[in-house]
Amino acid sequence: MDAVDxxxxxxxxxxxxxxxxxxxxxxxxxxxxxxxERAALPPASRNFHLSRLEAAGLVQKRRDGRRILYAADFxxxxxLATFLxxxxxxxxxxxxxxxDGCC
Length: 103
Known about the structure:
CATH architecture: Orthogonal Bundle
Number of domains: 1
Order of helices and strands: HHEHHEEH
Largest sheet: 3 strands, antiparallel
Radius of gyration: 16 Å
Strand content: 5-15%
Structural class: alpha+beta
Number of strands: 3
CATH superfamily: Winged helix-like DNA-binding domain superfamily/Winged helix DNA-binding domain
Distance between the termini: 21 Å
Helix content: 40-55%
Strand order of the largest sheet: 1-3-2
């Protein structure tokens, strides 16, 4: 996993907003037009940001008839979470007191 590219793609407010939207709607995803409406983004801006998320592997697109649907790639999200948690408490002399017990 290239965490730098993934995190860089999420570092922009609009991209993070679009990604969060797609995570909330789940694996079914949303049509491009509805993403534009919900995010109040013109198609060109929407396409630019979704392309960046897609390049980072966070979003997948698929054709459904004449529509293009975008959905979060939950496998990639899990990879990112695993990457971020893997270093949890590595150098601690005692286990971390974390709510999820990652250590």
